[in-house]
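Sequence only, no structure available. Ideas?
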Amino acid sequence: MTWVYFTTAPDQIVAEMWRDLLRDEGVPANIRAGDTTSFLGVNTYPCRIVVQEQDVERAKELLEERLGRKLD
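Reply:
I predicted one. Tokens follow.
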């Protein structure tokens, strides 16, 4: 299983929502370790989302469909 960079969310809350959306649709996704903060509260900085290499296109389709726009 090879995890690869997929996209960057504007902050931790959005990253967690996108990760959960992908997982709910059957696409394993994680927020890159070190991009989140749990003991100090929520991170307001951009957070990177990773998916399995074979799931990149499916993840892109799902997220673009839900957001109603193309990913950067």
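Strands lie at 3-9, 29-31, 47-52.
Hope that gets you unstuck.
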